[in-house]
Amino acid sequence: MNNFEFYNPVKLVFGNGESEKIGVYAKGIGTCALIVSYSNVDFYGDLFEKIAGFLSAEGIESHTFFGATANPKITEAIAGVEKAKAVGADMLIGVGGGSVMDLTKIIAAGVKYPHDIRKMIKFSHSSDVQIAPTEALPMIMIPTLPATASEMNPTAVITDDETLRKSYVWEPACLYPKVSILDPSLTLTLPAYQTASGAIDSISHAVEPFFFSDEATYGNIDLQSNMQLGVVKTIYDNLPKVLADPNNIELRSVMQFSATVALNGWLTCGVQGWTPMHQMGHVLSSHYKATHGATLATMMLAWMRYFATRKQNERFVAFAKAMWGTDDLLKAADIFEEYIKAAGVETRISQFGCTEASLEELTNGVVEVSFSSDGTLASIPPIIRDEAYAIYKLAL
Ligand SMILES: [Fe+2]
Hints:
Elements: E1 11-14, H1 22-26, E2 32-38, H2 47-57, E3 61-68, H3 74-87, E4 91-96, H4 98-110, E5 139-143, E6 155-160, E7 165-170, E8 179-182, H5 192-211, H6 223-244, H7 249-262, H8 276-287, H9 292-307, H10 314-324, H11 329-342, H12 359-370, H13 385-394
Parallel strand pairs: 1-8, 2-3, 2-4, 4-5, 5-8
Antiparallel strand pairs: 6-7
Helix pairs in contact: 3-4, 5-6, 5-7, 5-9, 6-7, 8-9, 8-12, 9-11, 9-13, 10-11, 12-13
The protein binds fe (ii) ion (FE2).
Fe (ii) ion (FE2) binds at residues 148, 201, 204-205, 278, 292.
């Protein structure tokens, strides 16, 4: 096991109806809240009026910034910072999925950030000099889409809409929310596609540390591997049930807590934590209209198929055996693809509009943002440019 340090200060509140206590949890954190959510909040009915009422009952003033879109953009963060400053917000409340929570983090740090907000993010891992944020307004998250675990990690993913580069900032010093309220009742009305693509994203969060572990250390199935597989299997078994019975609060509860556990740091203690499939997936969603979870579906399948023909694929084979009882990676990928299709999520990048002619652009995209100066994408084993191209091609 590698040495590690674990730090996670998020107060996690879980339970049906717990979001109604937002005022109680916010009291003591701030007196003027900016509530951040999507540019279209019709889906939520009167949720925001209720939240404002709960805050008001505790003497907390609130304002709204409905400016987040899927795959949030730098320009949205700049507008959010302006709004937060204009209303004098001293805390932020993110209500929505990963896009909303990530945008909330960038705004919270952006209010305190003395530089161009783009400097906060490393948009090129080989050349950009990042100036990490050191402070942020305190944040409360109410996730309504189980997927990214942004509610319990210090990461925010954002796209520079000028360059179409999508990257992330990970900063434990200031990007952890103070409190996150997981209220599964808020997920009961989540449409099937969002439910499924969120679940596939969560699966990928546990699959990546399983695939990209250090063979010398993880030759055997150990605690981390079992935890990762446990999360994957739980979500994998649960997703078809929740799609068939969307109003089942117990099933929704399992989905929500599983998503949080998948990327709150527990699964990567002592593990490398490379995310090459995410890095390649980000290019798909910044260049094409593709949902984050769907991009991960295409990448997990393509990586399994690519490593079917490669040496050093022991972890992929171990995964196929544990999940489907086969050491044939191509067969395992076929079974997994049928499962994802049945859940209604895309499995091929051609479904996002990519063609053979797109492969160079996609490969250039991941090289520009995520490749290191040594010409590789961090992974075990490291991936070179030609391999990234081959993986995208297998995903067509
Ligand atoms: Fe993800």
